[in-house]
Amino acid sequence: MTLDLGFLLGQFLAALASASALFLVASGLSIIFGVTRIVNFAHGSFYMLGAYLGYTITEALPTGVLGFWGGTLVAALAVGVIGAAIEIVVLRRIYRSPELFQLVATFAIVLIIQDATLYVWGPVERLGPRAPGLDGAVQILGEYVPEYDLALIAIGPVVLGLIWLVFHRTRWGVLVRAATEDREMVGALGVNQSWLFTTVFFLGSALAGLGGALQVPRESVSLLMDLNIIAEVFVVVVIGGMGSVLGAYVAALLIALFNAFGILILPEISLAVPFIVMAVVLIARPWGLFGRPESGEHQQALSEEPLRPLGLARRAAILAGVAGLAGLAFLGGRYGVVLATDIVIVSLFAASLHFMMGLGGMASFGHAAYFGISAYAAAFLATYAGLSMLPAMLLAPVAAMLAAAFFGWFCVRSTGVYLAMLTLAAAQIVWSVVFQASEITGGDDGILGVWPDKWAKSREVYFLLTLAIGAMALVTLQRIAHAPFGYVLRAARDNRLRAEAVGVDTRNHQWAAFVVSGVFAGIAGVLFVFAKGSIFPDELAIPRSFDALLMVLLGGVQSVFGPLLGAASFTYVRDEISRLEYWRFIFGILIILVVILAPDGIAGGLQRLWRWIAARAGFRRVTPDKAEGA
Amino acid sequence: MSTTPADGPVLEVSGLSKSFGGNHAVREVSFALGASELLALIGPNGAGKTTCFNMLNGQLRPDRGRVVFCGRDITGMRPREAWRLGLGRTFQITATFPSMTVIENVQIALISHERKSYELFSAARRQGRAEAEALLDRVGMAGAADRHCAELAYGDLKRLELAVALANRPRLLLMDEPTAGMAPAARVELMALAARIVAEEGVSILFTEHDMDVVFRHAHRILVLNRGEIIAEGSAEAIRADARVREVYLGGGTQEPGAEEARPHA
């Protein structure tokens, strides 16, 4: 590598331009989170919409400086209106739901916008016009730098300055800052909260839309834009400190620079660079560069009911579930047995996530890492070491355990969304290593030919094996939940201070729970790899982690049945509708319906339905009924 | 559990100081607490009582000074380590495990005390059940063992907290405003219970309190804190007669005793 000054400067300026683009999107997300505490996964979709709208509007307007910049602004405003509308129609209904539940709704919005965009603009990529007057390049130290990049470099700080002015010179801005600091206090002061939330959503979405529209001259507009940017935007917001706009700018610079130069220094793991930066920052500063710990301990009192041992009715429900699965496997033909096997595996995976999330109070955005590590370990053992199936199944979860112990040690030093982002970072690092170390892992081509031993080759036998192992694992997780460890873990989640004051090392218990959770995800992983006969990097990528997260949240975090119901219905319904053309749209609508109708998840909703029916039928037991209306 | 010399103090605090950004919250506080003593720490709002408490059980690291518990220097020790030595506490804003039942709350403390919290496969439900029932009986909560903690009345939460704090047979209990937010009759009842525990089990209690009625009726000895410093110390009669105390409470423009109520429990 030669140290060519011109080349380095070129990289540097390109990084600054990317930083501006990243900042525009990230600042919007940060503002939204700061005020509403919603982890908005749909933010990448607003960015994508901004790009499509910017493309269409500038095409429609007469070419020229006014047409381009005017069109860009109109696109940004239009996205702001869409964002505000979504807040009013969907998100407003679920502000009182448990923490992170809104995340499910925003994920549904991602799906809906995906298909809506596909419907309006079609699957073909669009190449937008260049910015008039800025379509050339200037030569600096022998490097050609696009003029448009120079404009972007200026736009970032300008927008930062404008936001600063709004936040410090207007009453609205002061309210936004106050709400970021202490939401309840602002509510108590008589500020119209829903109006504030809607306007904040408008501004945040408009900023994402602006970022998207400004991207049109730089890259082609496509349906992949939303998911391509969202992880990086979250990284930027978290590094900067959630709610801090200045932090978002500094973090965007940091990430853009590391991206530009990291690829020169560490090409092998270049994809993981932003996540490594985030992990390092969070370990040094658990609330990001400019973030502050949540002011006060305004912890919502949990309405959760005590964990009771399984009663007769629930045992019967379990048996019915198992019978249903067996029926699907043996009467549903080849297709049925595959689906039933999948449901068992995914249920175990979701239950393992529920263990750390529901009992331990630690949400993970990267649980697929442990599922995937174990699956890869089994594949290595079966192919390279030539082990037969059962020993490989037994040994592989050890790899998941070690990885969970390693990453978990860092993660439990944080809490809440920051902890979740660290788990995401861990998973992305693992994913990029697997993806880029293709000599060992086969990279994108994966590892093929990992089949069960001869005795378990038939799908039906393998289903029974999966059912047996899965059931044993689920029963074991239940036992742990009802063991002293499970009790103390819940105590630490309920009230960390109180738990420490009775001698509990809460962090260590959380760490142990992280490891337990990783092991059980690993067991699901080995069952998966022998069921499919192959493993690809996709299995430990973000979408797989989010699937598990959605299953747990949709099913109901507060119920031990939640993850199982969530996993089964999620897998079954998606399987049923994914043959339709616009299935994402339908799936998104279904998720939103569940979110609005059953804010406590499917399990909670069914429970309330059952109580309602029971009351109607007149055989209601007399019990104090706390869950209702809570 | 550590042993104390028969009549040596349970707690010896010397020169304890803490400031927050130039504001001296606690300054050169020294006092001792004997076995089976019920000592009250009083003072107007912002006098530094809670800061003092937080330094005693390790929640906050003092800038200067020493905390000696049963002959052992515990300055800067973590709350959970101090608890293992027999120093328990209750909180100003009640702290329980809201998703659990009353008896489970007590069982958690017992499980922790017996160092069984990493057991993965035994059934926690039976863990220390009898002992937990006895503790609940001690605080008059035996009938509520299987109720959901989140549905308890405020006074019951306070009593539950006391049962939890007693689970590891502490030598010293720190109680931060144990009766805040309770009705007058319930206040007297709770402090009478605390006094009984001191008399019958040899536990020492250091408590802060705003209700002077409660303080004068139950405390063996009283410390008065004002602006981070101890300004008086002695029996109820002595404190009642002390001119400086009168000034702090009645003249100095600080709030009247009893004016501050804990925030209602949400």
Could you walk me through the main structural features you see in this protein, from its secondary elements to its overall organization?
The complex is a heterodimer of chains A (630) and B (266). Chain A is mostly helical. Chain A has 2 domains: 18-134 and 146-259, no CATH class; 318-584, Orthogonal Bundle (ABC transporter involved in vitamin B12 uptake, BtuC). Helix content of chain A is 71%, strand content 2%. In chain A, strand 1 and strand 2 form a beta hairpin. In chain A, 54% of the residues are buried. Chain B is of the alpha/beta class and 266 residues long. In chain B, 33% of the residues lie in helices and 23% in strands. Chain B has a 6-stranded mixed sheet, with helices on both faces. Chain B has a 4-stranded antiparallel sheet with strand order 2-1-4-5, with helices on one face. In chain B, strand 4 and strand 5 (72-73) form a beta hairpin. The chains are: A mainly alpha (630), B alpha/beta (266).
